[in-house]
Amino acid sequence: AAKSSGRDRVHLFSPSLREAARWRLEVATKLRGDAIDQLVVHYQPVVRLDTGQIEGVEALVRWQHPERGLLSPDTFLSVAEETGQIIPITRWLLRETTRRAAEWAADGMALRMSVNVSARHFSAETLVRDVRVALQQSGLPADQLVLELTETSVAEDPTRAEDQLAVLRRFGVRVAIDDFGTGWSSLAQLFSLPIGTLKIDRSLIAAAERVSVGDTGAVLAAIVGLTRTLGIRSVAEGIETPEHLRLVREAGCDLAQGWLLGHPMPADRLREWVREVQR
Ligand code: C2E
Ligand code: CA
Ligand code: CA
Ligand code: CA
Q: Could you tell me if 55 and 112 are in contact, meaning their C-beta atoms sit under 8 angstroms apart?
């Protein structure tokens, strides 16, 4: 029941090799200056598979570039990672998204807010303070904030990761492991961490569909079974077709996200979407 959101489509600007160096320099320079004001956040619904209700949203950053249009994060976040600008960007995002979630909650639309945190920020001293400040300034209850971390960012330094996660958990903030299935981290290590949610990468959903002729998504069902045992909630990413939806429902996933269920959209559109779709 998702509305087409053609207007919100991002561009995957792919510069030629010669242009690439210039683009990196432009990104590095601009993101240090006024471009941070040109960043916008889109919100993608995360839907409960049992009731169909919206449970929360994932915040996804875009760059409203004055000449090139709405740019996908893939075009500029890797440069921001290298230069370290990812930290002030995420700090801004934490403030913006918690403020937005608090505003929605005050308006009767309480939604859990998921924010992506890069490995670089996760291993930095400032993350805990940035999260605390955002929660204090917005007044958002800590359990309404979910930090999404990739497998690789926790695997880099597991001891440090455990400490960081313990502090965040003491605040009451939730943590999700993102893109599960794309890395090769040790399952034992991953599941020894205090995580609340596992987001299953869309490559696994697509793979499950391909082998589903005889043996319907056995791998998927096994992963979901494991999360159940450990008391971790599972989110299936990249649900594009009714077949994907059927597959992840059968596997027993708790939550799902994808174009079939709702595209990422600007805040005001999400507000409308919830009113229209979730009556
Ligand atoms: P991600 O965290 O895995 O986010 C999901 C990506 O999948 C988003 O791409 C989303 O638009 C896209 N997507 C959603 N539904 C579908 C679907 O049904 N099919 C397909 N093929 N794709 C779908 P987006 O917005 O281009 O972001 C790409 C990546 O950039 C994100 O992957 C995340 O790793 C990173 N990113 C985005 N926003 C932020 C941010 O604010 N901070 C950080 N550190 N990283 C971000
Ligand atoms: Ca994510
Ligand atoms: Ca993901
Ligand atoms: Ca990703």
A: yes
